[in-house]
Amino acid sequence: MTAQRSDTTAATQPPASPRSFASQVALITRLLRKRFDERARGLALPSGETLTRAQWRMLATIHLNAGSTQREVAERLEIGPVAAGQTIDRLEESRWVERRPDRSDRRLRRLYATDAAMPVLGALGLLADREDQRALLGLSDADMALLNALLDTIIANLTKATD
Questions:
Q1: Is the entire prediction scored with pTM above 0.70?
Q2: Beta carbons of 60 and 27 less than 8 angstroms apart
Q3: Residue 9: pLDDT above 70?
Q4: 38 vs 35, 42, 84, CA distance in Å?
């Protein structure tokens, strides 16, 4: 009798509505970020320090955008200038980032990852590659080509959207 009730209940409930595209993208982003954060937090650094999420994001952004100003990096990460400055200060204290004066404007200081940061960046890069591979398990090369083409189309649509 219990089995009949669960079957009847399941049959009378409406099917779960599919997630919207935006909610799927948000969920994927959240899951990727959560998995990466958990693994990055456990990353053993030579100094025994641990990197916060804010620090590894800042370090990676500075490395990928060498010579950017603090304001440019803050905008890229969509964070405030004060938070960016505090994180950069900590990275500078760890000798992973350095501020250099701009040659044409003495008021500006440009940001660069140091040689000491390269092992940390390498470890984060390997971690990111492993997480990408994990997320894409079971997708064929043809699936990936189609997925990339579809995502490129969506990006183009959103980039040129004016309304």
A1: no
A2: no
A3: no
A4: 5, 7, 22
